[in-house]
Predict the structure of Fatty acid binding protein 4a.
Amino acid sequence: MVDKFVGTWKMISSDNFDDYMKALGVGFATRQVGNRTKPSLIINMDDQGMICVKSQSTFKTVEIKFKLNEPFEETTADDRKTMTVFTLENGNLVQKQNWDGKETIIEREVTGDGKLIAKCVMGLVTIFPR
């Protein structure tokens, strides 16, 4: 169920995030800002099943709205234009982004102690921000 993901989540750490951004093809200047940014992730869902995910920081705020299992066009915080789909897999909220023949997967899980953990995978690079 998506309900357990609804709320405001503050990033505590993001180990190896620079390597992940490099694998995505993000330029040096944008990576420098990304490495210093600790955005809040705000997740809401309306009565019709429309989910809103907002990444909010002093640098940039990005918001996407979607329904599970329905692909949509996303413009990411680093300005990639992707075809994205969110699914629920084994209780985790999984986001798959495809662009220019590439794919990245962001798998979000709520732990038993109430933390949101996002595992980001791009090729051989995997990060676990908390």
